[in-house]
Design goal:
single chain; 1105 residues; mainly beta; Immunoglobulin-like; five-stranded mixed sheet; 12 helices; 62 strands; 44% strand; disordered N terminus; receptor; cell outer membrane; signal
Amino acid sequence: MLKRMRSFLVLVMLLLTTTVSAQVTTASMSGKVVDASNESLIGATVRAVHTPTGTIYNTVTQSNGQYRFQNLRIGGPYTVEFSYVGFNPEKVSNINLVLGEDHTLNIVMKEDAQTLGEVLVVADRSSVISSNRTGAQEIITRDKMDKMPSLSHSLTDFTKLTPMSSGSNFAGTSYRFNNVTVDGASFNNSFGLSSSLGAAGTEPISLEALEQVQVMIAPYDVRNGAFTGAGINSVTKSGSNQWHASAYMYTKSPSMTGYRQKDDINTVTEFSNHQYGISLSGPIIKNKLFFYLNGEMDRQEKPVNYKPRATKNDEVTGEYSFADAQTLEQLSQFLQNKFDYNPGTYNVGSIPTEADRITARVDWNINQKNTLSVKYFYLKSFATNSPSTSGAPTNGRGANSYAIPFSSCYYRTNNNFNIVMADLVTNINDRMSNTLKVGYSALRDYRDMDGGFFPQVDILDGTSAGNAFTTFGTEVNSYNNMLNSDIYQIQDNFTWIIDKHQLTFGTQSDYRKFKNGYGYSFAGSWRYSSVDSFYEDANNYLAWKEAGADPATRPTTLATSFSQKYAVQGNGFPYAYVDILSLGFYVQDKWTVTPNLNLTLGLRIDTPIFLTDLDKNDEAAGLTFQGGEKIDVSKYPKTKPLLSPRLGVNWNVFGDGKLQVRGGTGIFSGTPPYVWLSNQAGNNGLLFGDLAKGRPFDGIALVTPTAADIKSSKMDLAVTDRDFKYPQLWKTNFAVDYSFGDGWIATVEMLYNKDLNAIYHRNIGLNDPVGYVQEGSGKERPFFATGVATDSKTGLDYPTGYYITDRTTNVIQMKNTSKGYSFYTTLQLQKNFYHGVMKGLYLNGSYSFGKSKSVTDGSSSVASSAWKYRPAVNPNVEETGYASGSFRGRLLLQAAYTAEWSKNASTSIGAIYQMYQPFRYSYTYNGDVNGDGQNMNDLIYIPKDRTDINIVPATGDERSADDIWKQIDAFIKQDNYLSKHRGEYAERNGAITPWAHQLDINITHDIKLPLKNGQVHTLRFSFDIANFLNLLNKDWGVKETTVYGSSSSPQYQFLTMTQAPTAANGYKPGFTMPLNNKKVVTDTFKDLNEQSSRWQMQFGIKYFF
């Protein structure tokens, strides 16, 4: 029955609905035609011509003198002609339309006796003043993309021009909840493994192929959906009646890279970065059929910034890590001699990334009523990555100032796709139009590596700080890691204009099929507190094996942690399958209340339906978890429609475009990263088993579990709450735009977001609290563990026995929360100089400020990681903290100027300056203070004084408790965040790095080459310079980062737990300030010794016509 229903629902979707991810890809034009007495002219003929393609649009004015063109191509130029019996014709030319704009063009026509001849008006105005504009958004035109600096040639280089952005986050909301589309096709990595399609460091589509980009944070048009962060909507170039072609190349190299920052002189590792592309467009049939084609390839060798110091006696400075080459070489020889395994090199100088892209488009003007557009997108790419930070030791696995990994644990992410989209636009008559979109996407992503198949081993530095030292073996997340995604999408919007009302009826849907392979630690993973500890453990195994390998005498492991999974069914690697159908319906009325006032009222209903049949786990269903919770891993959430009412307002106060008041309020429904939903299918206890009992290091990557192993194996489970809903956010926006002087526009914009259905994870596999930690706070931090053990090498305590059943480990439940919110304000001033001595100058300055609070950042794709990487006091309740994308303030200045030296030579200069704080971070303990089995997620209590903390020196530490307190107290006093929050728990992401100053510039010189046939070809030379300030002065442009942790691992740990809480000691933990290289940390921040702190240049050459 379920299979029949599923087939029926998919059929309904294909016949009736639209893609959830599709956004508006056209523009519109409207206005009013009156006579000299301001009387409406009824039945006046209005004719718009898209000059490049000769496409003609015709309409007539209605009873109120108003007219409207729907579904116009973006760009231009357009020429609009007005005619009426007894009146002179009027013509307006040079109109260019931006994505999503409703261009207002009002005309006063004069009678024949009043004026002789034709009047020519040149349209020249900003798109900020537009009746379609309600909430916060930014439009990036082709002209801006050509003039602004872009060293990575990525979409992010231009979406950052949105005032309320912070990296790929918008208004504090995580990038995971953005919706990225190109020509209506979904370019999200909707499964949630990254912010967009394409391997890390590569782009899914060539920037050369894009005509415009629109970033919408709060659009109140219900046609825009499937996001709670931002909708990032791009439209590709199209062909025209003229032939156009281009060939281009961009390159970066060590010779164009800075090596000095302040007094540090760094060695620039050899690397290369080349991008090549060609494009061609033109008519197949003039005024009828056009094509556009772009092909591009990237070849990159990215530098690795850190290298090992030669010996333990050498200093750790600049680009040199604490890990030393002498120790790493000895370790490599040991592995080769004892296990016949070559871990690779520890001197990785650069890592390769490649991408091949194709964008193709055909546009057909079938007749004056119908146009058809077909697009094709192709990508084949891979990126090489350093070891994952997932489950990493303190400060990550490197390469960094602490750790240097071997090349065997680097891995490649391969991302490939084929996407086809088709649009049919039908203008039925003057008042009715229809837009139909259909598409299919085949996405194929997988990982591979060069290091062979061998267990991953993390080795720490042997100190109480517990920093990483090195890693080798198969990266724990990469074995058989693959994702096949098939997405079917279809969209239909019907628009009907009735007097002052523009009614839109639409349906939206997509059908997604996922096949996911993921087996964390399938090759096994070990962690040791020191190199010596690893040697001893491995030698114990080898001696036992040499003595006959009697199971009864197998030595116990010295590893501080061990994990290895196996296939429960024993018939090959198991995969998870997830099918989801999303249905959407909406209705909207854009009501022109008066010529100056527009109201947009809409209602959208989105309904996700889970079509996957999941196997039942009777054993798991019979268990009782924390708080008496019962689960059923065979059931996904109930089908629940999500209602999203919206109201948008646009008021042109005086009717002259000088003062615009706009805004709106309404609900936005998004989609969760689908990987979070697939976790239930992949972690149901029926696919993988987890060997619970550790063993000394044996180098065995694939295991065949014994009956005893299976009996002692535990289930790692993930489940979604039955009442779970897709993310929903209530957005309220208010803005005022004021045009003054000769085209200056000042804007004040405020945006408030309130979570209705956000997402968080909790671990119901933990014990109910057995006590409460006494750490001086006077508050109750629950404690879950029932036992304690001591690391024989470091002497540090750690809790044991934290799981509620002996058959399960982590049981992660995904639920909703409504506790998050954000509030941001932007002040903006901008101007385009079209005339006079400053012609060609563009200025735009903005300052945005506010904050964003959330329950979780959702920083991982794995359910257990999404839970354990959320720093908290109580990891199982809805604690709010600062969102990782929350920023206090951001100053953004943009400028571009074109100087025309002659009719055949011009130079453009573009600049972007940002003042911002790079990332937020949390102060957490190094150690498992609450007994939940995790060492990095416990927010610290910041002691008021010596009596507020129990100091217990580590084994072998010669410092007294009072000496350690003086060091702790000195560190707290020098830290701006800690010193202001004594006597409190640190907040998640409560601290933030110092202000950074980034100035990037672009210099472009065009040489025009007139040909005898009248054509003009252009040769363009360009220089993009990142961090231009550092080029001017070695002390400028240098960013600061945290001494412990990083932007990718934002936990700062300066307190280490030496005594675990137990019932016997009244649940009172002991702490120390660890020694690192015989020193304690004294400063919160240090200079960031990476390329972003130094200047880098890119050279480009382009020939086009």
